[in-house]
Design a protein that fits this description.
Distance between the termini: 6 Å
Bound molecules: the ligand N[C@@H](CCC[C@H](N)C(=O)O)C(=O)O
Largest sheet: 17 strands, mixed
Shape: globular
Number of helices: 4
Strand content: 35-45%
CATH superfamily of the largest domain: Diaminopimelate Epimerase, Chain A, domain 1
Radius of gyration: 17 Å
Number of strands: 17
Structural class: alpha+beta
CATH class of the largest domain: Alpha Beta
Mean pLDDT: 98
Low-confidence stretches: none
Helix content: 10-25%
CATH topology of the largest domain: Diaminopimelate Epimerase, Chain A, domain 1
Order of helices and strands: EEHEEHEEEEEEHEEEHEEEE
Number of domains: 2
Length: 261
């Protein structure tokens, strides 16, 4: 079979996207997804997404996300932003979109060339001496470091991701350095990619909330520099947790192709 695919990137977090509204691809084809994401034997990507027919009232589409290892995983923030740009490219949406992903319903808007994606509310942030842990749709370990540019994200990230208390199910691991005011630099080790990626949307969302929760910042808007580009996170702190969380940044189509599978 010849499969048409699209390649997108959001601050360097890159994805293969397939329009699966007619169900041409089975969601259980882990081997195929891993091969398509392989940077030497396939197209190459941090993850793969299927855009599927909406199942719920008011939705424009369904997002199904797989990590580069081919396994379906939890929410991908940059992926969600890219899928909204893809839905606009297909003409499914104009400047506003509503879709369901594994963590529930999301609203998004395309404005001034950026995709503004609403993330799920976050009720709980676990604070430890050396780090924080929270779920922003995907699990994230957040730790402050000095000299982030020289930090060994690959080895430190891998050992935290595989160690206690995460073990096999794992966590994504974010290393953060405060730059100035409300600007932070972040590098992320992603589970399922098992490597540092150039950016992680749920990761920078976790960092922004963690920096607010630990009084590193008092604004309700945090700017994050990732190795792949700049993202912004806005939110409302309430006594019940963080609400109205938005992940804002660019998402662009890189190319379209066909592959035999
Ligand atoms: N790159 C993503 C996160 C993708 C999921 C993650 N690797 C996991 O399995 O938890 C993002 O932009 O949020």
């Amino acid at each position: 079979m010849i499969l048409t695919f699209y390649k997108y990137q959001g601050t360097g977090n890159d994805f293969v996207i397939i329009d699966n509204r007619d169900g041409i691809v089975s969601k259980n084809n882990t081997k195929l997804f891993a091969r398509l994401c392989d940077r030497k034997f396939g197209i190459g990507a941090d993850g793969l997404m299927l855009l599927e027919q909406p199942q719920n009232d008011g939705d424009d589409f369904v997002m199904v996300y797989f990590n580069a290892d081919g396994n379906e995983s939890s929410m991908c923030g940059n992926g969600g932003r890219c899928l909204v740009a893809f839905a606009a490219f297909l003409g499914i949406v104009e400047d506003k979109a509503t879709f369901t992903a594994i963590d529930g319903k999301h609203h998004a808007e395309i404005k001034d060339g950026l995709v503004r994606l609403q993330m799920q509310d976050v009720q709980e942030i676990e604070k430890y001496e050396s780090h924080l842990f929270l779920d922003t749709g995907s699990p994230h370990h957040v730790t402050m470091v000095e000299r982030l540019a020289e930090f060994d994200v690959q080895n430190m990230g891998r050992s935290i991701r595989n160690g206690a208390p995460y073990f096999e199910s794992g966590s994504n691991v974010n290393f953060v350095e405060k730059k100035n005011g409300n600007l932070f630099a972040v590098r992320t080790y992603e589970r399922g990619v098992e490597d540092e990626t150039l950016s992680c949307g749920t990761g920078v969302t976790a960092v922004a909330l963690s920096m607010h929760a630990t009084q590193q910042v008092d604004q309700e808007e945090v700017d994050i520099d990732t190795p792949g580009g700049a993202l912004k996170v806005t939110f409302k702190p309430t006594p019940e947790g963080y609400k109205d969380i938005f992940l804002i940044g660019p998402a662009e189509q890189v190319f379209k192709g066909e592959i035999e599978c």
